[in-house]
Design a protein that fits this description.
By secondary structure, this protein is mainly β. The strands form seven sheets. It has a 22-stranded antiparallel barrel. A five-stranded mixed beta sheet has the order 3-8-9-6-7.
């Protein structure tokens, strides 16, 4: 066992003993632990959940002062995040994000979101509309299917009847940061409505062309039909202009340009609750993403010195133009079988369609249908013993069905302590892109210069078998909570991007040295195994009523048959946050530490580069005022206060730079916000 992992286990054991029951008087420093849905689809208290769940409520989100959701998740134990440039985040649990992370299921009010890019979506949920975020740390395919291969993030927005009135927010800061948002909530009888609109702009980080301009509109309507029935409708629409590319890229391969993103999302849900223990949910949702991002390669622009005079004048139309649509229909029932047992079961259909002349050269348009049936049984076999059994059968069009099981036993010797022991198996189906991608670089005459990405029709699902031992404890005086997860995860058939051997195109057109660097790639199943053993924990303590400290820490012992895969997981992450209230002043200071990781995207043959370990500091301080009958908050926030550092490698651009100096670094940003409610 790694020495640091052994020390962490010893420290955690001491903390668990320290939280044992005592006769100390109880002070309500922490409210009752919240109910969560993400673990089993049943409303459960945190001690009853089948796995480790982190809950971030609206107050804590506001305290961070963050402008994007991805940065909030840096505070969750085990999460490994990075930012390549302004507006582009790489969000994973335990790393392994590859080019685009696809290991987690993200849901917004139960609607599956097709991307873990979070704030890169123009129609994204605005932080001020979020009631709370639930994060199940670990595999949850037994509840939500293959997209929850390595965790699930469930974002719950505020019910439109939870508040009335209006709110305005203005923001301005360094690096061209500016923004304005408005929210209005109204209700009449059994109907309530919330409308939120926002405009955001920033110029990104120093030295990069990575500015963004976003307009977003969000609507939620809730209608109580009668005592038992409620209908919820939500709609989100947005558009953004994003600066892309790097100056000086060879042959204009990463031209500095502006891309346009458009997004729309709809959700309609009917909820029928005949009693507190019996509920039906029927949900349908639709998502559409459209990217317009096209330019031309030109072999006469930024020609490397060794190739001067050796490459003919060629041009090629390239880009990231893409349209993605998702249609989902889901039926679910929650019911109590008897005094000791509850059941959640249901079925889901999801249709996905991708359209792109660039990414799917031969087919242009690809689609598939996914079918799922799921069930979770909660059984209290004795007052101190709670079982959760879950299973999901998933069949993706063209593939055989796969079964994802999970079993957890929770031992609760007293109301303040819970021990968890569980096992799960999860599958991640290859994405349409991974199986059907077909990127060909053609010159102006139609001659094939590079078959950049090739389809992989025989690509198989990747599998993870996970065992965990967990502990959740609350001190007798309720000042401190401790959440611990010990885990062993074995991953097989991991989907990776590899070069393809064979003859190269453009013989006699391009120099052989250039042709070799343009070798194509294909998504393949790695033949080896990756084993992750580790511990992660979160301690929250309030030594004083207005003072809170939150420590999140993870240590991972990484073992892999392929050393390159081992390096795609950071050996540790940590965050320490200090929240303080003094009168009308509120402050949150966070120190974040990330271990070295091979995190990046794109592909450059023979090139590898890891991001070194780094530490960064974020701080937000606010002052509340009351002007007549209106509430007013002024907040100053800053991120990356320790200065520039790299978090994510653009492999192709970094390899072209000819230097070890990072071509993309994130840096310090400061911004001031003014918010009023009336």
């Amino acid at each position: 066992m790694h020495p640091s992992l052994r020390h962490a286990l010893t420290l955690t054991a001491i903390q668990c003993l320290a939280l044992s029951p005592s006769n100390a008087a109880e002070y309500e420093f922490f409210e009752t632990l919240p109910l969560v849905l993400s673990g089993s689809r049943l409303p459960q208290s945190l001690p009853d959940a089948p796995g480790a769940v982190t809950v971030i409520d609206a107050d804590r989100i506001a305290a961070t002062g963050y402008r994007d959701l991805a940065r909030v998740l840096r505070l969750v134990p085990g999460f490994q995040l990075a930012q390549e440039r302004g507006g582009k985040h790489w969000v994973t649990y335990h790393g392994l994000g590859m080019d685009v992370p696809q290991q987690m299921q993200v849901m917004i009010d139960g609607r599956p979101s097709p991307s873990t890019h979070f704030n890169q979506l123009p129609e994204r949920i605005l932080l001020q509309d979020i009631e709370r975020i639930e994060v199940l740390r670990g595999s949850n395919s037994a509840a939500y299917g293959s997209n929850a291969f390595h965790g699930a993030v469930n974002i719950t927005t505020r019910h439109s009847a939870s508040e009335t009135g209006s709110a305005l927010r203005f923001m301005a800061g360094t690096e061209g940061i500016s923004g304005v948002s408005a929210r209005h909530t109204a209700g009449s009888g059994l109907h309530s409505l919330r409308i939120t609109a926002a405009h955001e702009k920033d110029d990104g980080f120093d030295g990069l062309r990575d500015g963004t301009r976003t307009n977003a509109l969000s609507i939620r309507s809730d209608l109580q039909l009668n005592t038992h029935d409620e209908v919820t409708l939500s709609a989100n629409v947005g558009e953004s202009v994003v600066e892309e590319g790097y100056a000086g890229s060879i042959f204009n391969s990463a031209k500095e340009r502006e891309a346009r993103n458009y997004g729309q999302a709809l959700l309609l849900r009917w909820r029928h609750a005949s009693s507190a223990d019996d509920e039906w949910l029927l949900t349908t949702s639709w998502d559409r993403r459209k990217v317009k991002d096209a330019w031309q390669l030109d072999t006469t622009i930024n020609v490397p010195f060794p190739l001067l005079g050796r490459v003919p004048a060629l041009t090629s139309a390239v880009g990231n133009d893409l349209t993605i649509e998702y249609h989902t229909l889901e039926l679910q029932q929650q019911t109590r079988l008897n005094s000791d047992s509850r059941l959640a079961w249901g079925t889901e259909l999801r249709h996905t369609r991708n359209e792109s002349a660039y990414y799917f050269n031969a087919e242009r348009e690809v689609s598939r249908l996914e079918r799922r049936v799921f069930a979770n049984l909660e059984w209290r076999s004795a007052p101190a013993w709670l079982w959760n059994f879950a299973g999901l059968v998933e069949q993706v069009e063209g593939d055989s069905a796969h079964f994802a099981p999970r079993a957890f036993l929770n031992w609760q010797p007293d109301p303040n302590r819970t021990w968890r022991l569980g096992y799960s198996r999860a599958w991640r189906q290859p994405a349409l892109f991974e199986r059907r991608v077909d990127v060909r670089i053609l010159d102006q005459s139609g001659t094939l210069l590079q078959w950049r990405q090739m389809p992989a029709h025989d690509l198989q699902p990747q599998r993870i078998d996970a065992a965990e031992l967990g502990y959740l404890g609350v001190s007798a005086d309720r000042r401190t909570t401790l959440d611990v997860r010990l885990f062993h995860e074995r991953i097989q058939d991991l989907i990776v991007r590899n070069p393809v051997a064979g003859d190269l195109p453009a013989a006699g057109v391009l120099p052989d040295t250039l042709r070799e660097s343009l070798r194509g790639t294909r998504w393949e199943n790695d033949p080896g195994q990756l084993r992750l053993n580790g511990i992660e924990y979160q301690v929250r303590t309030r030594p004083l009523r207005k003072t809170e400290f939150i420590l999140a820490h993870s240590l991972i012992d990484r073992r892999a048959d392929d050393e390159k895969l081992r390096l795609k997981v950071a050996p540790y992450t940590a965050s320490l946050s200090w929240l303080q209230e003094i009168g009308q002043w509120k402050s949150m200071l966070s120190v974040l530490r990330m271990g070295s990781i091979d995190a990046g995207f794109s592909y450059a043959p023979g090139f590898s580069s890891s991001v070194p370990a780094y530490t960064t500091v974020d701080w937000s301080v606010a002052r509340n005022f009351r002007v007549r009958e209106n509430e007013l908050e002024i907040r100053l926030s800053g991120i990356n206060l320790l200065g520039n550092h790299q978090e994510l490698v653009n492999r192709l651009r970094q390899s072209q730079s000819g230097t070890h100096q990072p071509v993309n670094e994130v840096g310090r940003q400061l911004y001031l916000s003014l918010q009023t409610q009336f």
